[in-house]
Amino acid sequence: MTDTPARPRPKAGILDITAYVGGKATAEGFAEPMKLSSNENALGCSPLASQAYAAIADKLHLYPDGHCKALREAIAQKFGLEPDRLIFTAGSDEIFDLLSQTYLEPGDNAVQGEFGFLSYRIAVRAAQGVIRFAPEPNRRIDVDLILAEVDDRTRIVFIANPGNPTGSWINGPDIRRLHEALPTDVILVLDGAYAEFCDDPEFEDGIELARSASNIIVTRTFSKLHGLAALRVGWAYCPVEMVDAMDRIRSPFNVNAPAQAAALAALNDEAFVQRSLEHVRQWRSWLAQQLGGMGLETYPSAANFVLVRFPNSPGLTARDAEAFLAARGIIVRGVGGYGLPDSLRITVGLEPENRAVIEALAQFFKG
Ligand SMILES: Cc1ncc(COP(=O)(O)O)c(C=O)c1O
Fold first, then answer.
1. Binding site membership of 100 for ligand 1 (Cβ less than 6 Å)
2. Whose C-alpha lies nearest to ligand 1, atom 16?
């Protein structure tokens, strides 16, 4: 009898993780489908960012600056922050991994809302932590329900504000109340991937609160407002001790050179930023109004997408609508993986895309 040779085995818990599945990018039969599935910027990116990216083309043999010095200084200046309290990552996703690996011991837990962003649970479980989910009544974060999940093994609380895929947000006073009630050794992550799109006057992105807190990290990304999702640039603001700890395990050249150059240029293109914000505000409310006009329930959104709920009747479900749209070259995001199988998330697109998705849905309901 021959022994089967031993094979490499992933550590405990890895095979229990469900891999992240991004928004679909293809629709059969369409070379260039309308992609409204990943909350990308409908207007593209700043032309200055594209130029800066292209200008690096003859320097690809050089390692990037591992400390993102130019980008660090520019962000510090723009937001009035201390440069040594910033950390840069390959997309803001990477910061969730760094946090989990740095702060979670096996069996520690992290808390998030039940419909919260999928990357948090992956990062936590990969670090052999336990993820706990607080209910989100009406698809909104409830501070008291988050706090009810916190116990003496909790090390991190993740709040995306606004949230993905709900688009809902919580205002400054609630964030402050949450922070005050948390033990000071629990890290509060305020994920601001969509923060710029929120125009509620009571909204706070958390940076002011983080200035004087010893346990808050505010994360931001160049993927959404700045339209640089392909390049993977994120940054975070937190106490210098947290930067120091995470820097010890951060991959040394995690943000590549063209990405740093393009992000720096994007940061300075205020005209593009304003155009993007105005576009989202205008078409987000138009989409919500049109969907509401069809009798569908939408949820107030402070992000660059709208979450819409479909009926449970056979032939009219979210799944049916997703397939109907895909057959017409329109890709939206099914959010069953987030525990919302009755809904679709539709990214604000260009005007013809927004009109096309509404016209197609009108046909869908006409049968
Ligand atoms: C709430 C939220 N946070 C963070 C991210 C990560 O963005 P990135 O890794 O592109 O910076 C996303 C991406 O969709 C998101 O929706």
1. no
2. 164
Instruction: Give nearest CA residue, ligand 1 atom 3.
Output: 193
**Which is the closest atom of ligand 1 to the Cα of 224?**
10
Domain 14-45+271-366, CATH homologous superfamily name and number: Aspartate Aminotransferase, domain 1 (3.90.1150.10)
Integer Cα distance of 196 and 190 in angstroms: 13
Domain boundaries along the sequence of the chain: 14-45+271-366, 47-267
Q: Which two tokens stand for residue 209?
A: 């609160």
State the CATH class of domain 47-267. alpha beta
DSSP 105: P
Question: What would the pLDDT profile of 214-253 be if each residue is shown by its tens digit?
Answer: 999 999 999 999 999 999 999 999 999 999 999 999 999 9
Give the closest residue (by CA) to ligand 1 atom 7. Answer: 92
Nearest residue to 223 via CA among 70, 38, 22: 38
Helices (H) and strands (E) in the chain, counts: 12, 13
Residue 246 and residue 89 in contact, taking contact as beta carbons nearer than 8 Å: no
- Cβ of 93 closer than 6 Å to ligand 1, yes or no, is yes
The full 3-state SS of 27-92, as one line of letters, equals ECCECCCEECCCCCCCCCCCHHHHHHHHCCHHHCCCCCCCCCHHHHHHHHHHHCCCHHHEEEECCC
pLDDT in tens, 185-220: 999 999 999 999 999 999 999 999 999 999 999 999
At 301, list the tokens: 């959104």
Q: Is the minimum distance from the CB of 234 to ligand 1 under 6 angstroms?
A: yes
To test the pocket of ligand 1, the residue of 119, 190, 307 to mutate (highest count of ligand atoms within 8 Å of its CB) is 119
- Residues in contact with 211: Cβ distance below 8 Å, sequence separation at least 6, in sequence order: none
What pTM does this model have?
0.96
| Residues 6 or more apart in contact with residue 120 via CB below 8 angstroms | 96, 110, 112, 131, 158
